[in-house]
Amino acid sequence: MRWLVGWAADNAHGAGSAARPGHTIQPVGAQQLWDGPDPLWAVGDWRPDEIRLVEVDGGNRLAVLGCCGASDEELRAGLFAARGGALRHLTAWPGSYTAVVRIGRRVTVTTDLAGARPVFHAPWAGGTAYATAALPLADLIEAQLDVGHLAALLACPDAPEALGDGTPYAGVHRVPPGHALILRDGRSRETVSYEPAVPTVVAAPPVDADAAVAGVRDALVEAVRVRLAAPRHAPVPDFDSLDPGPIPGMGPAQRRPGRGPAPGLGADLSGGSASATLALLAAGLPGMPGTIFGTAGTSAGERLLAVTFNDLAVEPRAGREAELERARSIAENPRLHHVVVAAGEEALPYAGPDGGSLLDGPLTDEPGPSLVVAERHRRRLAAGSADHLAGYGARQVLDAHPARLADLLLDRRRRHLLRPVTALARAEGTSGRSVLVPLTVYRAARRLARTPYRDGVLEAARRLRERDVVGAGAGGTGQDGVLDASLAALTWCRPGPAARWLTGEVLAEVSIRLEQAALRPVPGEAGTRPGERRARATLARLAADHRILEQAAEVRSQRLHAPFLDNQVVRACRALPEALRVQPGARASVLRAVLAGAGVHDLPSGWGAASPATQVATARTGLRARVGDLIDLFDAPLLADAGLVEARVVRKALRAAAEGEALPLDGLAELVSTEVWLRRLLARRGSCWTGTAAPRQRAVAGGVPQRPSL
C-alpha cells in the first residue's frame, strides 16, 4: 500500500515535540519530500516517476504523486495558480494523482472527482495531520473504532447523508470527492469544492451531444496516452523464487505468478465494451504498449498483453462463452498478445489466498465488498503487466442512474422517457405486467421529481426506523427484474441490501443520522437534482471499493490503472446530455464513437450487448462452496459483539442463500467483508510510526467497543 502523510503544526500551542513533531516521530519506511513545520512524506513502494516536486521563489512547493501527464511547465503554472486560489488547475491534468501545495504556512491537498484518490485528516499535536490513507492517521492519534460509521456503512452504503465525513476510525475524517483540504498555520482547517457552482436560477445552456461525445473521446484517448508515455517498469526479480524451469505437471502459466507481472503495459480484455475499448486504444495509439519476452516473432514492445479471465466453476456458461468469443475476436489484432487465465473453485468468491481462509488476506485501509472477491481478481492481475489497464467505473460514469428520469421531468423533457421505459417493458417480457411498465415508471419518476430532498431523506429515515428495508436495495438476488431495480432506485436515499440483517437499535441510530442530515443545509448542494446526486454517490461508492480492491488484490511491482475514474474523463462524461444517457445502449454507442475517432471500426458482432447476469450465479456458487467456513466465521462474530447484528440471524441467512433462497447476496457479501476486515484489523501487529514520540499503541488496540444503549 502506498500513501502520503503530512501535517500542519501549530507552533503557537507549544514547543518541543508538539512544535516540531517531524523530528521525534516519522512514518515507517518513509521518504521525506519536504521538512519544516509542515513536513510531507511518501510511504511505500513509490516509483521515481510517480513523485514529482516543483519549487518556486519563497519556498512555495508543489508535490504531485501518482500518474500525471502534466509537463514541468504546466506543474509550475499550476503552482502559481494555486497560490492565487485557483485550485481547479491542480485537478485538470490527465492521469490519476494527488496534489499537495505548500504556500508559506498554507497547505492544500486535493482529492479527485470520483473518490479513488481520497484524503483524510485528523487533529493532532495542536495542528492537523492529513494522509491519503485512514489507518496511519488512526495509528497516529490512537483511534478506536467508530461503530456508528460501520453501522451506517452497512445500512446505507451509498448515502452520503448517513456516512458524512466519517471513517471506521473515531476522530479520522474524510474529504469529500471533488473537494480540497486547506490548512492555514496549523490552526484553521477548511474543506472547499474546486468545481464551479452550477447555476440554479438560470437553466444551463443545451449541450450538443456530438460535442460531448467528442469530449469523452479526447479525454479517454489522452488518459490512455499518459499511461503509454510513462516510463516502462519491470518487476524486481526475486532470486529466491526464480522460475525453476520445466516441472512435471506444471506449465508456464502455473510458474508465472512466481515471477510477478510481465514488464510493460497491459490491459483487461473481458469481452465487454469498457475493457475492450481500453485494450484497443492502448494497442492502436503510437508508442510501445508492452514488452512481451519469449513471444515468437515479436520484438520487445510491439504487442500489448491482453488478459481474459475464464471462470470454469460456474454453470451455465452460455453468457461467458459469448464474451470469450468476442474477446478472442478482438485479440486477433496483431498488436495484442492474448492470455486466457482459467480458474476453478479456488478463485470463487469467499476464497482466501491460494484457496485458503479469507482471514489470511492483507489488511486494507477500510472494509469493502471487494474483500470477498480479492483472490479472484488477484489471479487475473498476476497474469497481467507491470502497468495494467482495467475498465472499472465505465458503467458509473457513462450510464444513466434510474433517478435521472426524474431530472428529465424537471427539465420538461417527457418525450425522452419513451425509449428507456419501452426498453424496461421489453425486459419484462410478454407478461401482463409489461403493459403497465410505462405508466408505473412515469409515476415513480414524477413522484421523485416532486419530492424535495429533505422529504426524501426523512422518508429513508422512517423506513429504517420502522424496519421497512426488505426490497429497498435488494439487488443481486437474481429474482428481481430490471423494472424492480429501477423503481427501487427512483429515490433520494434508500437503505442498503444488508440493512435487513442489522438490529433494530442500529437501524434507529442510522435513522437519526439521516434526520440530522436532512435538517442540516449542505453547502453547494441546494440546487442538486436527484439523478445527479444519486449518480455521484454511486460513483463514489464504486471508487472507494475499487481502492480497497487495489490493496486487497495487490500484486507486487504492479500498478492497476482505471482511466474511467480520471478527473478529465469524469468531467467529460458528466457533460453528456441526460437525454443521451438514458437511451438504451448509450454506453456502447459512446465507446464505439471513441474507438471510431481513434481509427478502430471493425468490431465483433454483439460488441456492447448487455451481458447475462452471471455475477449472481458466481456469488451463489462461491457461497455454497464456502458456507461452512462462513458459518464458523459468524459463530462468535465481532459484528455481534459491537451490537450490529445477531449471529444466529446471519448464520440462518447464509444457509438459506446457499440453498438458493432469493436473498440479496451483495448484502451478505458486505456483512462478511466487514467481519473479515475487523478480524484482520484486530489481529494486526505493529504500527505505521516510529520514533521517540511514536504512539504507545496501535489503532483499535482495545478491541471492538460495546455499543451503548440508546
Coarse morphology: globular
N- to C-terminal distance: 38 Å
Proportion of beta-strand residues:
5-15%
Report on the biggest sheet. 6 strands, antiparallel
Count the DSSP helices: 24
Look at the helices and sheets and give the structural class.
alpha+beta
**Beta strands, count:** 19
Q: Overall mean pLDDT score? A: 86
Report Rg: 25 Å
Relative helix content: 25-40%
Low-confidence stretches: 13-19, 239-250, 253-257, 293-300
Strand order, biggest sheet? 3-4-1-10-9-11
Q: How would you explain this protein's 3D organization?
A:
It is a single chain. The protein has 710 residues and is α+β, with helices and mostly antiparallel strands. 37% of the residues lie in helices and 14% in strands. The strands form 4 sheets. Strands 3-4-1-10-9-11 form a 6-stranded antiparallel β-sheet, covered by helices on one side. It has a 6-stranded antiparallel β-sheet with strand order 5-6-7-8-12-13. A hairpin with a 2-residue loop joins strand 9 and strand 10. Helix 3 packs across helix 16 (504-519), helix 11 crosses helix 13 (437-449) and helix 21 (615-633) crosses helix 24.
Quick take:
This protein is an alpha+beta fold and 710 residues long.
List keywords for this structure.
710 residues, alpha+beta, six-stranded antiparallel β-sheet, 24 helices
Describe the secondary-structure layout.
Elements: E1 3-8, E2 26-27, E3 30-34, E4 40-43, E5 51-55, E6 61-68, H1 72-83, E7 95-103, E8 106-110, E9 120-124, E10 127-131, H2 134-141, H3 147-155, H4 160-163, E11 173-174, E12 179-184, E13 188-193, H5 209-229, H6 252-255, E14 262-268, H7 273-284, E15 304-311, H8 318-330, E16 336-343, H9 374-382, E17 385-389, H10 394-398, H11 404-410, H12 418-427, H13 437-449, H14 453-465, H15 482-489, H16 504-519, H17 530-552, E18 559-561, H18 567-574, H19 578-581, H20 586-597, H21 615-633, H22 638-641, H23 647-658, H24 665-682, E19 689-690
